[in-house]
Specification:
Layout: E1 2-7, H1 12-18, H2 21-28, E2 32-37, E3 51-52, E4 62-63, H3 65-76, E5 83-93, H4 96-102, E6 107-111, H5 121-126, E7 129-132, H6 142-153, E8 182-185, E9 188-191, H7 201-214
Parallel strand pairs: 1-2, 1-6, 5-6, 5-7
Antiparallel strand pairs: 3-4, 8-9
């Protein structure tokens, strides 16, 4: 089982997704586990405040290091080995190869920033790996965490119904079709590519391969 530990101010923003469909079933089967750690619960401020004004000025607020570190260390506990992920625009690009490698870990910690981000000292103290899920900026780290959990979980044996469902282990195409073979929509007919209904497996594989290379 892979245990995902998520430090986030807004666990409710992704919890519903994790409880549904494939990820939800994976938790029921105890193939994965997801735990949340809200920094507000670890704040020394009696009001539970964890955002502070940034040094050097700026338009937004920065999440303080103390509450984040206390939440993270609660997650880490006495574990001998835990992979630590710190979301950053200058981090390593997340891809399938990284997902496959992380799927072999027992514990993975995600530090989800919000507002203007997390105090940089958190990453340095935890010696966390900087990771980016793409060349864009989001309002928080919750979606990147959900994206990584989803992608990593697919490589854990038993999570997918069939191992052949992994795109990198089969001849895949970005285009997929199902019944009916001729769809009538607003006066027009849209047909499934004839090769897919031909029954010729070699030609079908070649068609899928070509579509995959062209995408």
């Amino acid at each position: 089982m892979v245990h995902f530990h998520i430090v986030t101010l807004f666990p409710e923003s992704i919890d519903a997704y994790f409880k549904a469909s494939i990820i939800g079933r994976a938790q029921e089967k105890k193939l994965i586990k997801i735990s949340y750690y809200d920094p507000k619960d670890f704040a020394r401020d009696k009001w539970g405040r964890v955002d502070r004004r940034p040094y050097g000025g700026g338009p937004g607020m920065v999440l303080e290091p103390d509450a984040i570190l206390r939440a993270a260390h609660t997650a880490i506990g006495k574990k001998r080995s835990i992979e630590k992920i710190f979301f950053s625009t200058d981090g390593a690009q997340f891809d399938a190869a990284m997902a496959q490698k992380l799927a072999k870990k027992k514990d993975i910690l995600f530090i989800c920033g919000h507002y203007e981000g997390v105090d940089a000292r958190v990453q340095k103290i935890l010696k966390a790996k900087k990771v980016s899920v793409g060349p864009f900026v989001l309002t928080g780290g919750e979606l990147p965490a959900a994206t990584m959990v989803d992608a990593i979980a697919r490589y854990i044996p038993g999570v997918l119904g069939k191992i052949e469902s992994l795109e990198d282990s089969r001849v895949a195409s970005p285009e997929v079709y199902t019944r009916p073979d001729t769809l009538q929509w607003r006066g027009k007919k849209y047909k499934v590519p004839p090769v897919l209904t031909s029954g010729n497996h070699a030609q079908i594989a070649a068609w899928k391969r070509k579509r995959g290379l062209d995408s």
